[in-house]
Write a structure and sequence with these properties.
Helix content is 37%, strand content 14%. It is an alpha/beta fold. Helix 14 packs across helix 15. The chain is globular and about 85 Å long.
Length: 649
């Protein structure tokens, strides 16, 4: 167990240093901030907004007017200062990468860095054009924020650790230490394409199997210290380069924070991770705040108190450790609000011209076919870039993406990167329509959307209109629109909703999991009929872990079994308990003709559901407790639950 705990600690350290030191915080109200004309962002994954878009393919942008997602701290600062924004942030950025953008004396080579050239480098012409763009935008900026440093330390740590694997001349299966080091160095220096996260995981796994973990950790920490030295040297050069280009702008140096500050591992013993990483954070912050010879050239922004607002939970389970942790140590929306507040405190002096407050417009997402999609926000302001990430199921592809405003007019959609697309928010609500089809290909972005289902009498943008088995006068039209607009339920195919089909236990878990925002799932419930590759594995394990659902008593979950109305009422009541809501059974079953058919264990749950307005009965004054819940009935019950119990209009 000691060796296992040590292995996990090594993985923790690698992740800590990879994501750097990101953070988050609390909302501020009633602020008056100084007005700026042009705001430029330099930084790593924190500044790029990693995590605010779902999907592993979002790695940020380094182009003028880069994708400014809703809730990103740069977006918030630009809105509240009234500034035009120029985003040169990118996941994986080191100080060395930013310096190469700024220093025109740098001698170009194709694979010079991990980040400037996405997936393995950029051409000399593209690099020169990017440098020209950066210089021009810095020159006209009157506000710049700089947020970088963590990846410097991680890269050096991994490089030095890899020497141990090479020198040991080990061989695990068909893989030699030299080959391990070569792969890792190639990824770290941008000379090959691949998954750096999995490479890091495999690296420490090989070290553990080879019995070299102590030596690898020591070398890793030594390299991390070397990374701090490199960081301080590059930091000073970055400040000098910025000031040579623009001596008069307001330059805010955003400090580092430790997202593992209050984190523990769970397992045989609780291990405090924070003390292992706080010291390095303090060294870097002390240099920025006190030691840099260019300290008088910028404002230091302290964000060390931001450690309570990251996607990662406070305690980590050893099972699925890497899968759940690697991508979940970035700021939440509240975290980016914290950063924006701290930055605005630094620039609050001077003129107090307040930026115009623009209204938010709704983003309604509709998907059809075999795949899923998410938007980075549910509301956005006019002219904001709004992102869409699509994920086809195996054997399918996204065949079309269309966006329409409230008047039915098409909105232009453009590709951003990999399977992420974006559009400029018009001055109205929008309907985003995504279609998936069997086969391979790229989505058609030229479509203007439309009703899809052919119901010309329906209001433009009505989400139910894309389904051929829905009609405007159906009793469940309103509830189905409600669950579609809020991404609680989706269609069963490109053209059908199947309102009269039965709801399964797996479907219920998936709906609740979507309502909860699809949080990280760190444990397995151990059901014998729920496997890692199942589409419902995360929803079922999440629901079971939070006592929202239970198994069948024999080690199974029966994910494909139909849900009865009394079972659905029971599950919703359990979810209400999880949400901290009052579940007193205040309803009355008087007047229902089939009360005797209610199972004894479901009587209180049905009574609560009746009192909450979730169940109103069927024709003939029937509760129909053992009748299977159809998708239309489920949509109605979930709508009533959201409005009456959760208070979501």
């Amino acid at each position: 167990m000691k060796r296992k705990t040590t292995r996990i600690l090594a993985l923790v350290l690698s992740v800590v240093l990879l994501v750097g030191i990101l953070g988050v915080g609390a909302f501020a109200e009633g602020k008056n901030v100084k007005h700026y004309n042009n705001y430029l962002i330099l930084g790593d994954s924190n500044a790029a907004g990693y995590g605010l878009l779902q999907g592993d393919d979002y790695f940020g942008y380094i182009r003028p007017q880069g994708l400014m997602v809703q809730g990103l701290y740069g977006t918030l600062v630009s809105q509240e200062t009234g500034a035009n924004v120029y985003n040169y942030a990118r996941c994986g950025f080191r100080t060395e990468d930013i310096l190469r953008l700024l220093d025109k004396n740098y001698q170009y080579d194709q694979f010079s860095n991990t980040s400037i050239g996405y997936m393995g480098g950029t051409s000399a012409q593209e690099f020169a054009e990017l440098q020209d763009s950066v210089h021009a935008d810095i020159a006209k900026a009157d506000l710049i924020t700089l947020n970088v440093g963590a990846n410097d330390m991680f890269t050096q740590g991994m490089m030095y650790a890899s020497y141990v694997m090479d020198d040991a001349n080990l061989k695990i299966g068909d893989v030699t230490g030299y080959e391990i080091r070569k792969q890792l160095v190639s990824l770290l220096t941008g000379q090959s394409e691949g998954d750096l996260y999995n490479a890091v995981y495999s690296f420490f796994g090989y070290a553990y199997m080879a019995g070299l973990l102590p030596e690898v950790i020591s070398a890793f920490l030594y390299g991390f210290g070397k990374g701090i030295i490199n960081f301080s040297s590059h930091w000073d050069q970055i400040i000098k380069e910025i000031r040579d280009i623009n001596p008069n702008c307001t330059l805010v140096a955003v400090g580092l924070m430790n997202p593992f500050h209050r984190c523990k591992l769970t397992g045989a013993s609780l291990v405090e991770i924070g003390p292992l990483t706080d010291g390095n954070t303090m060294i870097a912050n002390n240099y920025i705040q006190n030691e840099s010879p260019y300290r008088d050239q910028y404002i230091y922004c302290d964000v060390t108190g931001a450690c309570d607002y990251v996607f990662m939970p406070r305690a980590l389970v050893e099972a699925d450790f890497v899968n759940e942790l690697m991508l979940n140590v970035h700021p939440t929306l509240e975290g980016h609000r914290y950063y924006a507040d701290r930055i605005e405190e630094c620039i609050s002096q001077g003129s107090t011209d307040t930026a115009v407050t623009l209204p938010d417009h709704n983003v309604y997402l509709n998907t059809t076919g075999t795949g899923s999609a998410v938007t980075n926000v549910k509301t956005a302001k006019v002219n904001e870039d709004t992102a869409i990430t699509v994920t086809p199921n195996e054997g399918s592809y996204c065949s079309s993406i269309s966006v329409r405003d409230a008047s039915g007019n098409p909105v232009t959609v453009k590709k951003a990167i990999n399977t992420t697309y974006y559009f400029k928010m018009p001055d109205s609500d929008v309907s985003v329509n995504i279609s998936f089809a069997p086969g391979e290909g790229e989505p058609d972005l030229s479509q203007g959307g439309g009703n899809g289902g052919g119901h010309s009498s329906w209001e433009q943008g009505c989400p139910s209109a894309v389904f051929s088995d829905m009609t405007p006068d159906s009793w469940y039209h309103g509830p189905v629109d409600y669950v579609l607009n809020r991404h609680i339920m989706t269609g069963t195919s490109a053209t059908t909703f199947e309102p009269n089909s039965n709801l399964t236990r797996a479907m219920v878990c998936t709906i609740l999991y979507a309502m909860e925002g699809k949080p990280a799932v760190l444990t397995s419930a151990g059901f014998s009929d729920v496997s890692a590759g199942d589409w419902f594995v995360n929803p079922v394990n999440w629901a079971a872990a939070n006592n929202v659902v239970a198994g069948m008593g024999d080690g199974t979950f029966a994910p494909n079994a139909n849900v009865t109305r009394e079972q659905l009422a029971t599950i919703l009541r359990s979810y209400a308990v999880y949400k901290g809501k009052d579940v007193t059974p205040n309803g009355s079953l008087n007047g229902f003709a089939d009360v005797a058919d209610i199972s004894f264990w479901a009587t209180e749950n049905i009574t609560w559901a009746v009192g909450a307005g979730i169940i109103t009965g069927k024709p003939g004054n029937l509760v129909d407790p053992k009748g299977t819940a159809t998708r239309a009935e489920a949509a109605t019950m979930f709508k009533q639950f959201c409005t009456n119990v959760l208070g979501q209009a």
